[in-house]
Amino acid sequence: MEAAHQYNVHEAKTHLSRILEQVATGEEVVISKAGEPVAKVVPLRPKVKRTGRGSLRGRIHIPDDFDDLPDDLADAFGMLR
Q1: Which of 42, 49, 39, 36 is closest to 13 using CA atoms?
Q2: Model confidence, pTM
Q3: Beta strands in the chain (DSSP E)
Q4: Does the pLDDT of residue 1 top 60, yes or no?
Q5: What DSSP string runs through 60-78?
């Protein structure tokens, strides 16, 4: 992995738009104060593209006994009488 670009606070304030463009392309940027790194600007994860309701129909199987608990667990949760 390539090393992150580093800017001091003054440069970061002056070139914020350029820094955000770099981050938007996947780069990480480090902001330093008095030569010491204090913050890292990283890209956000992309949004998950949903294909719509029911897109997993037929790909997931939930067995009929899914909600049935073994007696010992049901008893531990006070579900047996």
Answers
A1: 39
A2: 0.53
A3: 5-8, 29-33, 36-41
A4: no
A5: ----TTTTPPPHHHHHHTT
- H helical segments located in 1-68: 9-14, 16-24
Flag whether pLDDT at 12 surpasses 90. yes
Using alpha carbons, select from 41, 36, 46 the residue that is nearest to residue 19.
41
Strand partners, 41: 29
Cα 27 from Cα 40, distance rounded (Å): 11
Query: Which DSSP state fits 78?
Result: T
Take residue 80 and report the two structure tokens written for it: 């047996």
pLDDT in tens, 30-74: 999 999 999 999 999 877 777 778 878 888 888 998 888 888 998
Residues in the chain: 81
Residue 20, token pair as written in the block:
């955000």
Query: Which of 47, 35, 41 lies closest to 8 in space, CA to CA?
Result: 35
pLDDT of 2 above 80: no
